[in-house]
Amino acid sequence: MPTAAKLVAALCLAALGFIVSEQIKPLMPEGTDFGIFSFVNLALGLICGWVIVGSRAGRGFAAAIGNGVTGVAALVFWGLFVQGCNKMVDEAMRNRYDGPVEAFAAVFELIGEYLVIMNDSTVITTLLVGALILGLLTEFAGRAWR
Fold first, then answer.
1. pLDDT-above-90 percentage for the chain
2. Quick one: which of 16, 12, 10 has its CA closest to 123?
3. Can you give the residue ranges of every domain in the chain?
4. Where are the alpha helices (H) located in 32-96, listed in sequence order?
5. Which of 7, 49, 70, 115 has a Cα-to-Cα distance from 136 of 20 to 30 A?
6. Could you give the 3-state DSSP secondary structure of residue 95?
7. Sequential DSSP letters for 98-145
């Protein structure tokens, strides 16, 4: 059922996903083709915000911060997984892997590489502050518009 808390959570997490994606772009190797990288993460933010954070609103402000952190962690996980799968498929089309098991294992290697790239103070600070703001705004929306 649509609620104001779900809408606020979805919009906030989508904005956070887009902002962090733009912060990650300069950290990637020169000449990287990003395509719709930021918009995929924006869509993932919409989904994670609606399903994970918005549905848990109304449990108090301490829980709201935890919900924000949970939502951001889910966004990071799914973003890394989707981008890793995308890169693996791109490399698989170039016959880089000997079989499906090697291709599947490569997804997790790529996730590890992307985690190292994300290990930047600006990105981490943005995610943490965004989680706090996301959780509190969702809680305010859940209380204000029941």
1. 84
2. 16
3. 4-144
4. 37-48, 61-92
5. 115
6. coil
7. SSHHHHHHHHHHHHHHHHHHH--HHHHHHHHHHHHHHHHHHHHHHHH-
